[in-house]
Every structure is written in C-alpha cells, then in structure tokens.
Amino acid sequence: MNQFLYRIYWLCSCLLSGWLIMLSMKHFITIKQKPWKKCLMLCGCAVLSTMVIFIGDSFNILATIPCFLAIILIACEGTKWQKITVGTMYANTVLAFNALRDNFLKPLLSMMNPEEYYGNVCPYKEIHATSPYSYPLYALFSSYTFTLLFALVLYVGVKKFAPAKDYSLSDSLWKLLLLLTATPFGIILSTVTLYSGMDKYPVWFFHPPFDYLILLVIALMSFISLLWCTTVLAKQQQLEQQNIFMEINRKYYETMEQQHAEIRRLKHDLANHMQVLSALPEQQRDSYIKNLAEHTAAMHSLSYCGDATVNAVLSVKKPLIEQHGIRMELSLDIPQELPFDKTDICALYANALDNAVEACMKLEKKERTISLKSKAQKGLFCLEVSNPVPDNIKILPVRPHNDGSKYDAYVNIPSTSKTDKTNHGFGLKSIRETVVRYHGNMELKTESGIFDLFLYIPL
Fold first, then answer.
1. Same domain, 314 and 231
2. pLDDT of 427-438, one tens digit each?
3. pTM, two decimal places
C-alpha cells in the first residue's frame, strides 16, 4: 500500500512540478499552440523536474540536457539562439537542484531513521533496485515535496520579476547569455560526471564530499542570476525601444505642428488674397487664382472633433490622401480634448493613416478607400482604421495571450513593403507601444480583403 501511494504521489508531483516549470518558462519563451506540442513540453518539464542526478553517475545528466533542448526546439517559438539559451538555463537550473536533492537532501532526510538507512532495510529497494541509494519511503515523499516547492518558488519568482510578454533580445545578447552559462554548467557537469569516489564505499554508506554541496549551490545561484539578468536586459531593451518610439513620435508631432501652423497662416492670409484679387486687373486675376488654387488643399483647416491634435493630423493628412486618389471616410465623436500626450495622439492617427495609404497605393484607384472611425465616450477611447489590401498580403488571426486575458496582436504585425526596411516599418510597432503604455489593447485582422486596425485605451 505504501508503495502504491508513493507511485501516485510521485506521478502527481512530477506532473505538477513540470506544469509549474513550464508556466515559468512561458515568461521567457513562447510555447507553440498545437496541443501535442504543449503536451510534449509538459512531459519534458515533468521528466526534467524528477530526473535523478547522482554524483558519479554521468548518464542521466548527459542524456537529459540534449533531449530537453530538442523538445524546446520543437515545441517553442523564437530564434534558435533564444530557444537554446532559455532551454540551457532552465535545464541546468532544475538539474542543479536535483543534484542537491538526490545527493544531500535525501541522505539527510534518510538519516532521521539511521537504523533503516544504514541497515539498508527499505521497502522501496525492490522498486528502484538500480539506484545507488536505498532510501526509506518517507525520505522519497519529502524529497519530491521539496521538488514541488522548488518549482512553485521558481514560478512565483519568475512571474513577479519576468519581462513583458512581447520582450525581445537580439541574437548577440542571447549568444552572450549562452556563453555566460558555460561556467556554472561546467561546474555541474564536472561535479556529476568526474567524481569517482563512490566506487570505494558500500552503496548504503556513500556520501558525496561537502565541497560538492557548495559547488552545486553556487551553480544553482548562478543560473538563477542569469534568469534575472535576462529579465534586466529585456526591460532595458524595451525601455530603449520606448525612447526610440517616443522620439519618432515627437518629431512626427513637430512636423505636423509645423504643417498645421502653415495651414493657419494661409487661412489667415486668405483675407489678404481676397483684397489682392479685388485690386488686380482681370487678365492677371485668372493667373493669380490658378496659382492660389494649387494650394487650396492646404487652406482647409477643418474642425473634425473636439481635440486640436486630431484636427491638426486630419487637416494635414486628408488632403494628401485625396491627392493619391484615395477616398477617405471619417466618423469622429470626440467631444473634448483627449487626456493623452499630444505626440502619442499624433502617432496613433498619423501612423495608422500612413500604413493604410501604403496598402492602398498597391491597388487600382477605384479600390482605394480608407475608413477612419474614432470615439471617446464612457471612459474609453477607440480608433478603427480599415482599408482594402492586395490579395498577396495575409495577416494571421490574432492569438490570445497565454493567460487568455488579451489578444496578442504583436506577433501579427506585417512588415513594411518599402525597400528601406531599416528606416521604415515602425508604424504599427509605434502604435502598439503607445497602446501598451496606456494599458490599452490593439487588434489586427483581415476579412474579405479588408485590413482592420482596432485599438482602445481607457480614458
């Protein structure tokens, strides 16, 4: 009966520990959505959490690490270096704990009953006769309880200090982090595989040297520090990206302000133009009117809503859009000034319209249409921009976050079609950054050949 209970408890703790480890890994790498790949990842994490690592027995650790990395490569998304680095850090973090558990914690728990431990009288011996140790069942129950607690602490710690879900690091940083894992990994590998002292003692009398305990603790703390380092690097890079987007938005807003100021100046000068027209001879008047008509698009500074920045953007963009033969449909219900930074408002509208224009320019003139709808009511600001897209442009359906709370539109952002990809392609990324910063959400979709950008932000 005790053996049966042990088997049930071992299976439950194995699956639960693996599940917690997998949940913590989701903060560093995205697991693919296919069910069989999720199951494969869960099985890999479960086996990793319960793998027995004895000092002097090299087979388990040498077989587990490459198998776990293979599972990461199959079941996870991201670059090759991200998969390898995250997989290596997690595998060695868990295996370092397993080595501490199996070589020091289990013997310590077993010695609570010295007669049973040193007398090699153990009900579990027949079940696990190949083990270098013969442990009492109470020690095995306790050791897997500690495994479960370790997985729980790892999950809680990662969840509290993890980077944002859409974080990204360059391959060069992932390679650097992988290089930094070499030293603690070398400590674990050499500690486990190179020790040969267990052959000198009876199976039930073997105890690893105390120095190895210190080395394994150092290795474990090193890998935890590397996970923390990954979080710090991700947050730093995200901050740098936010600064870049804010600078781009600031310059965009300044340009819009200059253009809008020019519009106001031309409108102010309209009265002077009328006086000049009234004083010119008829033959010169036609030439003057023709020259003035070329700038009429710039003189229509209209009030579309209650926000001056939105009016400025639309006053500049709408005439330019119509010059490209694009029909523009507007529907705005914003009764007063929006409580956001002016540069962010400019970035949302201008970038959304710029991307819509870029898509429309690939179509025949009769198909070019942009629809802009925006509201600010009941504590919510909404913006929706729709436009037809060429048949060869495909946007995957938005995918929910791992917790199912919000849509993850980040992975579906289409790249720019401009040849200079280094200096373009920031439009939707800038919109996303602004929306996330204001705790809103953004969704992208295509339906019946229409691309739709929808975002909302709490007021």
1. no
2. 788 788 888 888
3. 0.58
